[in-house]
Amino acid sequence: MGGRLGLSDEEKDEMIVTPWEVKGRVDYERLIREFGTQPLTDELLRKLAKYTGEVHLQLRRGLFFSHRDLDTVLELYEKGTRFVLYTGRGPSGPVHIGHLVPWIFTKHLQDAFDTRLYFQMTDDEKFLVDDERELDETSRMGYDNALDLIALGFKPRNTYIIYDVEDIDLLYDIALEVAKRITYSTAKATFGFQESTNLGWVFWPAVQAVPCFIHKKLTGENVPALIPAAIDQDPYWRITRDIASKLGYFKPAQIHNRFLPGLGIGGKMSASEPDTAIFTVDSPDVVKRKVWRAFTGGKSTVAEQRKEGANPDVCSVYQYFLYLFEEDDRKLAEREHLCRTGGILCGECKKDLADRINRFLAEHQKKREKAKDEIQKYHIKR
Ligand code: TYM
User: Fold this and answer.
1) Is the CB of 90 within 6 Å of ligand 1?
2) Distance 104 CA to ligand 1 centre (A)
3) Whose C-alpha lies nearest to ligand 1, atom 4?
4) What residues contact 140, with CB distance under 8 A and at least 6 apart?
5) Could you give the CA distance from residue 264 to residue 212 in angstroms, rounded to a whole number?
6) Which terminus has fewer CB within 10 Å in the chain: N or C?
7) Residue with the nearest Cα to atom 22 of ligand 1?
8) DSSP of 289-351
9) pTM of this prediction?
10) From atom 23 of ligand 1, which residue's Cα is the shortest distance away?
């Protein structure tokens, strides 16, 4: 699979961004154009900060870069219409720190707006899209991955995890309403379905649309959903937005993040490349080993680097400080300056990063253990 979503045939470079495959150097400007989303403007960030009280690190540093209808959601909010949050996970294996990016931001929004989060665990999707995977394996992984979400500190009162297979009775009527209004031709053009694609997969996008609308069924209140997620999930929202008003709902809004890169050269952090991904369950030694092998923007000899400096723009280690592990803007700027001028060597940055990650993971893993006793409180309340 892996259709080149929205990209014309002439554009033959290697970028592929679909919900199931991300390849090549991701050109985010081009995705905004091709997917038809809007860039996040400073003005919009200021509007958001009116309610959040700060511009969140992930916004300040440009990790979130694009949106659909965030302005509309904020205007409605100003006039008294609330919104709900929606995001999710396809539990194909352990969670990596890239997955945490949209969840950390979602938590920030949940705290600021005191609003409900619907979180979809798509064990069905991961079963359907991979010939080798068994359903009991993805379902089991769903409960495991929920621990990572809970460990981030979401409030049980406001957090509704949906496990697709277990909760399908709650989803099915809305999925049918959605599926009936999307033609095969639209789905094929959007997702790149082929003759060999199994039937379950073809129907499945209707299931990912459901949590955009489920709040009305549960509460009677018709409000928009705002979805923080990486840009790879956008095709789902494109088809969902097209049919939302036909069903009497608001169009779901999105705020899109870039991909946290892997520790290799370019690309996104991906579970399919475990040596360049940091999983939340990794031990300190494993983290050290992975970070030690990371691709950096360094020179081949110490002398050369001391003299000419290195390049943080292409360095995977620097991206982790930028996006997750150095909150202090001044300290980040200092690290960047030292790097460019040869005042710091890659080994030092790697050591600092491994320490930071391990400190974060030690806490996260403790909270993850504790979450085992809490998990029931987060299951969708009917
Ligand atoms: P999944 O499990 O592929 O990814 C979970 C979330 O993580 C984002 N993501 C990343 N973000 C930053 N850096 C990365 N390297 C990175 N890799 C993945 C994804 O965009 C996603 O937000 N079909 C979905 C599950 C789902 C969902 C949703 C996701 C169901 N409903 C609503 C977002 C919003 C999936 O398989 O996600």
Assistant:
1) yes
2) 13
3) 89
4) none
5) 35
6) C
7) 229
8) HHHHT---S--SSHHHHHHH---GGG-HHHHHIIIII---HHHHHHHHHHHHTTSS-HHHHHH
9) 0.95
10) 90
